[in-house]
Amino acid sequence: MAKTIRLDIVTPEKMAFSAEVSMVIARTTAGDIGILPGHAPLIAAMAIWPLRVITDGEEIPISMCGGFIEVQPEKITILANCAELPEDIDVERAETAKARAENHLRDSNSDVARAEVALKRAMVRLKVAEHNKQHKM
Amino acid sequence: MPNAQDIRRRIKSVKNIEQITKAMKMVAAARLRKAQEKAAASLPYTEKVREVLASVAGHASDLSHPLLEVREVNNIAYLVLSADKGLAGAYSSNVIKEVVPRIAGKTNCSVITVGRKARDYFKHRGYRIDEEFTGFSEKPTLQHAIAIARSVAEGFKSGRYDEIHLSYTVFHSAITQKATTVKLLPIEDVTAVDANPSDYIFEPSAEEVLNHLVPQYLETTIYGALLQASASELGARMTAMGSATDNAEELIAKLILNYNKIRQATITREISEIVGGAEALK
């Protein structure tokens, strides 16, 4: 059996994900990192981007909106404000959020930075949801 | 002596009140369970954020972040978490009582209120309210916490406040809650926690991580406090409404006894009148 590493994703609302995985690919603010079992201790800030979790050759994307990743040789903890598995994503809500954010971006009076973040979050969610759809078909 | 009809009306109105208090008690009990679960579910996150912050603080060569800056204290703000609705016993007034001695008579103190009760109290007594948040005391979400954290951090960074304290109610159980005040900003206690011994690699740098982590820590702390406060509010409401229901029941029992006494007295009087009348006719 291949070596595995424990992955815990913790959000303020709940423990979003907890399982043994073979590899995690995360995008930090400085770029993508791949984490395998036995990784050196690391703390990094994460970008708004789907987290790729690989278990037994199968890949699951998890939508994340920022947060932190803390790595220890046999355990990864991710602290995120929100984390959603593909099947938990409300596509409709993400679509409306995206449209709203785009509107805000066009309107020069509104808070551009905030709208950008909102847009990114919506895009990540849609991307992850997309994966789920393909999987079903 | 009140007449029978008055008492009957009184009984009816007390019964109505009892129904309301009973319903409120049950609603509060159901929500309390959920709020308690939520408060418990947020604990691992809060602890973890604190832990990571501590290990970052232990490793970063020089800790400098606007929110960690300790300044000479000129202006103090109190963030007060209270209820939107009443009928929760002494819940809101306990929090307010916790704050008032600290700000009474001082000109350099202002309050930021969460919940209608605190706002109304401080407004009527002429305290300075810099900002108010209402409408979510029972069911706070992370978004609310983020909004509060943002405005508080802004006030601190701009130098409007040199210290920010948070007054809220810690939930121990449905019947015991305790109003407390903690210092929110500047964040001080992080270095006190034992830094994790393992040597972390920081990506991209410890300072960068700190920049992200500190606001998140603030949000989490506020969110945790909001959840505690909402559980306390519901707990207080449940107990208050429970005893109100008991009191109503007791009152109804007394009124019914009284009512029966009067009814009996009327009947007796009527009988004796009839007997008296019949006697007179003989």
Automatic annotation (TrEMBL), chain A:
Broad class of the protein's primary localization: membrane
Function summary: Produces ATP from ADP in the presence of a proton gradient across the membrane.
Start and end residues of each ATP synthase F1 complex delta/epsilon subunit N-terminal domain: 6-82
Cellular component GO terms, alphabetical: plasma membrane; proton-transporting ATP synthase complex
Protein name: ATP synthase epsilon chain
The family this protein is said to belong to: Belongs to the ATPase epsilon chain family.
Lineage, top ranks: Bacteria, Bacillati, Bacillota, Negativicutes, Selenomonadales
Assembly description: F-type ATPases have 2 components, CF(1) - the catalytic core - and CF(0) - the membrane proton channel. CF(1) has five subunits: alpha(3), beta(3), gamma(1), delta(1), epsilon(1). CF(0) has three main subunits: a, b and c.
From TrEMBL, chain B:
Entry annotated with the keyword Ligase: no
Chief place of localization: membrane
Location within or outside the cell: Cell membrane; Membrane
Molecular function terms from GO: ATP binding; proton-transporting ATP synthase activity, rotational mechanism
Membrane topology (UniProt): Peripheral membrane protein
Superkingdom as given in the UniProt entry: Bacteria
Segments passing through the bilayer: none
Keywords per UniProt: ATP synthesis, Cell membrane, CF(1), Hydrogen ion transport, Ion transport, Membrane, Transport
Keyword Transport: yes
Pfam families: ATP-synt
InterPro entries to which the protein is assigned, alphabetical: ATP_synth_F1_ATPase_gsu, ATP_synth_F1_gsu, ATP_synth_F1_gsu_CS
GO biological process: proton motive force-driven plasma membrane ATP synthesis
GO cellular component: plasma membrane; proton-transporting ATP synthase complex
Complex and partners: F-type ATPases have 2 components, CF(1) - the catalytic core - and CF(0) - the membrane proton channel. CF(1) has five subunits: alpha(3), beta(3), gamma(1), delta(1), epsilon(1). CF(0) has three main subunits: a, b and c.
Family according to the record: Belongs to the ATPase gamma chain family.
Biological function: Produces ATP from ADP in the presence of a proton gradient across the membrane. The gamma chain is believed to be important in regulating ATPase activity and the flow of protons through the CF(0) complex.
Protein name as it appears in the record: ATP synthase gamma chain
Organism of provenance: Pelosinus propionicus DSM 13327
